[in-house]
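Much of our argument rests on the idea that a fold can be written as discrete symbols. Part of our work consisted of pairing the sequence of a single chain with a tokenised description of its backbone. No coordinates are needed to read the tokens, only the vocabulary itself. The record that follows shows the chain in one-letter code together with its fold in token form.
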Amino acid sequence: MSRENIFPLTVAFLTVAINYGTRSSFGLFLKPFAEEFGASRASISSILSISMLTFGSLAFFTGYLIDRFGVKMVLLAGGVLAAGSFMISSKATSLLQVTLSFGLIFGAATCFLSQITALSLLSRLPSGGNSLALGLVGSGPGIGSLFLSPSIGAIIARLSWRSAMEGIGWLFVGYLLLPLLLLRQNGKRKRAFLQKEMSKSSTKTLWQGWNLPLLFISFLFMSTAVYGVLSQEVAYATDRGMSLTEAAWALGLVTGIGVIASPLMGWISERTRSKKKLGAWILAFATVGILLIFVAKSGIVLALGSIVVGTAYASYVPIFPSITRALFGEEFFGRAWGLICMGGSTGAALGSWLGGYLHDLRGNYEGVWLVMALSFLAASVTLLLVDTARMEEYP
């Protein structure tokens, strides 16, 4: 792999590893915040909800900024906002200040530093970023969580939550060196590539038939199913007599398996003629994971169900962006992918709420798992409906 590919791949991987790794560590601050500010768990948890709502509302805008000003500027803006957010939080004297700094400022930062930007960076390579590269970047969040969560927890235990917040702030200050030092444009080649893209603009537009709405809906259904599992699996397992430890391990596999599954799906995708059909089959097979969770009476069966669901979740990184770029081209990728990610955020919020609502409505989990299985099937069918007949494959 050439240096011009290695540097962007490194920046993309470390961006999502640091961003998602720090975001997933928010739960470590629940008890310290409760002790410091005398707030309820619900009040503190709402901070993360606000952060995610901010993320979702800015997804399309982030794509526009990428297409308008370039990936490097968006990454730098995200790094500055993230560093400022954690520095402000470390000095907070009220929960409201943390809500504003982490919920709103970091909510914007985490969108700028999300897979929307990281995958847009790869899409701007002359090769377009193949599926294996996308899969490697897709493993970043899991690896980031694996290393950062224990480190942040150790700082909180040995020093204080304020020291941990300040340390994360300085981590993002150091992160700013990555896009500054590693992302350099090859002007002549970049201009030639953009001229090639512009020549396609008469046939390749953002609103190309029903493709964009179909990808949006497919991603929404998939996220609804995954987050329905994430919100209900532990409660369901413990109600059926499994231990909290077994349930927690199984829950961790839903996202943790992505460390292995995302690069693996990228490798398979590179050797498959139709990425659309591959993605549809994986999403349909995820219903087997839902069935395993439903019938599970042991931690092993529960874990197997989580692995199947998690593999389907991990498959979106190497498959959905590849289809998006081939359909809409480099010049529209940021906006198209940002809008599709809004579907994912909407589905995540819907799945988390719907799981609890369906359980409360019927007093059992049968309806929960049926709806989540149907959501995976709907995601599969919707993806199959995407018109890829004239889709241009990028090497």
Residues 3-185 form a domain with the Growth Hormone; Chain: A; fold (CATH 1.20.1250.20).
